[in-house]
Amino acid sequence: MTRKTVTEQYPDAQPDLPPRTRGVIGLFEENCTVCMLCARECPDWCIYIDSHKETVPAAAPGGRERSRNVLDRFAIDFALCMYCGICIEVCPFDALFWSPEFEYAETDIRELTHERDKLREWMWTVPAPPALDPGAEEPKEVAAARKTAEKLAAARTTPKTETETPTTPATQDTRAGRVAPPGPDDPQGGEA
Q1: C-alpha separations of 58 from 26, 62, 64, 103 in Å
Q2: The dihedral sign for the CA sequence 90, 93, 99, 102
Q3: How far apart (Å, rounded) are the C-alpha atoms in residues 49 and 91?
């Protein structure tokens, strides 16, 4: 009550939006496999998808032909959408993204149904993902891959020499991890 109210001068000055603002949904069409998960999970049923199947010839001689879905129509009706983000979360191929753009008001409600060309245009406004926290723990998968790569690199850099003497099964006790004393039949020593 003691502070003066601050009015945003919106059309003249753009608002400073948080990084995870839910504005409009963009479609990265190359990643879409027409699995229909987004349309099935949408609680408002505002996603419309049409597709057809195409036969892809065999890649190698003697192989079999494959069929794949081809996207014909992908549309989102933003007049029905409640911006819950379920479609983005369930997409297993990262084909849908949030864009912070919010200036897409229309004078006709029918123009709020954005077809795939319009949804593709929104992809240019999708911000880059945030950088990883430098203090965060390294993911287990990345750590395992790095360790394997380091082991392979170390194995390549240490050449085997001919002066190394291999241990014989008679002198190496592999179960206990220790060397057994040489017996009388060992050429390396023993009682004569």
Answers
A1: 33, 8, 5, 47
A2: negative
A3: 14
pTM of the predicted structure, to 2 decimals? 0.64
Closest to 168 (Cα-Cα) out of 141, 150, 186, 143: 186
85, two tokens:
């983000």
Q: Residues 28-46: pLDDT tens digits?
A: 999 999 999 999 999 999 9
What distance lies between CA 48 and its chain's CA centroid?
Answer: 25
Phi, psi angle pair for 178, to nearest 5°: -135, 165
pLDDT tens digits, 45-99:
999 999 999 998 888 888 899 999 999 999 999 999 999 999 999 999 999 999 9
Give per-residue burial for 87-125: e unless 16+ CB within 10 Å, then b.
bbeebeeebbbbbbbeeeeeeeeeebbbebebbbebbee
Full strand arrangement of the beta sheet holding 47-56: 47-56, 66-77, 113-114
